[in-house]
């Protein structure tokens, strides 16, 4: 998130001294601005306090111009260490603020740019600024540290180890915090929780009460930021999911999945989706809070991102117990909607729908398979054997391995419904076409299914011998 420069106190045309080239950063070409950097850097290195400030302002403004952004050139000019020095100079509030702003913009660059900041000692200096009595300096330091932490889990950990979380929480929970600052601090909290591996439990437990508090905020951006922070925790596996479920936030997250703000819905849906990747008990807790109607509502949403999130969650529920699969079947209209998505033009939606059907089939329950057949599943599921996505083809092959096993068991008991529907939908022909597939594993898997479950293939094998 790049902090753009604005017009502010200083004129667009800045002149550091007679030896420094006059530059209009809005009118000049990119080349002329780059040429000015060494002379501006020289101004920063002088002992003239006014010249230091004007030069730092110009560097900050160059870095904040999206059409120029000469981050590496500024680093190469050797001014990073000087900016870090200015950032801790509490005798000159304006210089300190401008230096931190420049560091914020540098932290928007590449990983190597951020590494240069870290190597220059910026992180501990910025963390110390979080306790500054100067609110502008403190708020800018928060943003700078958020940009550094957001680059990668490595730099996120460095920021955490430098002690950022405690003062950040103190600021966020302060009595007189402004809305804009609250938005920034909750965003930074989410950044500090993002990435793999997750932060340690101490960090998670320290920040969690604040995140839970602010998913009840009146501001949508604060809610969204807090939800994303929670979602990043939930991506850390079963133990993290349990920590979150123990706070009792599941009903609120399900409520937020139907919020009128798309960022809020996305963040809440991602968290619930992560919850149902947990163990069967954790998945059941989500279901018990009446999750199925909420997921169904998102399945029929016009927003594809919501459809994908919901399908992903339903597919994971289908991987649970038979009782959890029955919850999908009991939600009126949900099965037929999943089947509709097997023919979607969106590859991800097709894949998630196929996975949901394959997971239902994995339960090896004739009743479940017949339910989906009655809803019209067999033909579009067979058609996916010709999909251009190898991942989808493999999912469908896995589904048919289970479906045809059940079909064989039913046939032995005198019920050939499943096999008849498979043949009627063109299943044998679609499997046969995979003999020409580019992927050898898919070719072999298809042949194995035919040999195992289709009478004609067994007869052909016998004729060959």
- Rounded mean pLDDT is 90
Strand order of the largest sheet: 1-2
Span between termini: 68 Å
* Uncertain segments: 1-30
**Percentage of β-strand residues:** under 5%
Shape: elongated
Multimerization status: single chain
| Class from secondary-structure proportions | mainly alpha
The Cα radius of gyration reads 29 Å
Summarize the main sheet: 2 strands, antiparallel
Number of helical stretches of at least 4 residues = 29
Number of DSSP E strands:
2
What does it look like?
This protein is an all-alpha fold. 69% of the residues lie in helices and 1% in strands. The chain contains 29 helices and 2 strands. Strand 1 and strand 2 form a beta hairpin. Helix 11 packs parallel to helix 13, helix 15 packs across helix 16 and helix 19 packs parallel to helix 22. The longest helix has 23 residues. The protein is elongated, with a radius of gyration of 29 Å. The N terminus is likely disordered.
């Amino acid at each position: 998130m790049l902090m753009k420069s604005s017009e502010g106190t200083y004129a667009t045309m800045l002149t550091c001294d007679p030896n420094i080239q006059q530059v209009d950063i809005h009118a000049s070409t990119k080349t002329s601005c780059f040429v000015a950097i060494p002379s501006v850097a020289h101004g920063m290195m002088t002992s003239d306090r006014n010249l230091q400030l004007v030069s730092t302002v110009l560097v900050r403004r160059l870095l904040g111009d999206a059409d120029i952004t000469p981050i590496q050139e500024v680093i190469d000019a050797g001014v990073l260490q000087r900016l870090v020095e200015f950032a801790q100079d509490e005798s000159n509030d304006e210089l300190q603020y401008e230096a931190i702003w420049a560091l914020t913009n540098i932290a928007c660059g590449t990983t190597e740019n951020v590494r240069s900041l870290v190597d220059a000692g910026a992180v501990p200096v910025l963390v110390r600024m979080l306790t500054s009595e100067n609110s502008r300096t403190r708020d800018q330091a928060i943003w700078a540290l958020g940009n550094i932490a957001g680059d990668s889990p490595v730099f996120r950990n460095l920021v955490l180890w430098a002690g950022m979380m405690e003062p950040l929480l103190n600021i966020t929970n302060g009595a007189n915090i402004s809305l804009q600052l609250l938005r920034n601090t909750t965003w930074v909290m989410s950044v500090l929780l993002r990435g793999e591996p997750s932060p340690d439990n101490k960090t998670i437990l320290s920040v969690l009460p604040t995140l839970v508090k602010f998913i009840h905020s009146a501001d949508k951006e604060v809610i969204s930021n807090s939800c994303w922070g929670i979602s990043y925790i939930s991506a850390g596996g079963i133990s993290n999911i349990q920590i979150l479920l123990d706070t009792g936030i599941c009903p609120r997250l399900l409520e937020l999945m139907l919020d009128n703000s798309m960022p809020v819905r996305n963040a809440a849906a991602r968290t619930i989706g992560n919850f149902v990747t947990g163990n069967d008990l954790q998945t059941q807790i989500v279901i018990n809070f009446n999750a199925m109607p909420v997921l169904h509502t998102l399945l029929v949403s016009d927003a594809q991102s919501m459809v994908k999130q919901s399908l992903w969650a339903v597919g994971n529920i289908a991987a649970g117990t038979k009782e959890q699969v029955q919850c999908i079947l009991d939600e009126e209209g949900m099965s037929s909607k999943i089947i509709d998505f097997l023919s979607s033009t969106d590859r991800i939606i097709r894949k998630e729908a196929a996975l949901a059907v394959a997971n239902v089939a994995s339960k090896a329950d004739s009743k479940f398979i017949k339910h989906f057949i009655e809803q019209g599943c067999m033909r579009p599921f067979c058609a996916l054997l010709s999909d251009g996505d190898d991942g989808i083809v493999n999912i469908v092959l896995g589904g048919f391995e289970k479906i045809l096993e059940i079909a064989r068991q039913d046939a032995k008991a005198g019920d050939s419904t499943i096999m008849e529907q498979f043949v009627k939908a063109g299943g044998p022909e679609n499997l046969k076409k995979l003999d020409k597939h580019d992927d050898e594993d898919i070719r072999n898997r298809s042949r194995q299914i035919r040999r195992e479950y289709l009478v004609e293939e067994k007869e052909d094998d016998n004729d060959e011998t």
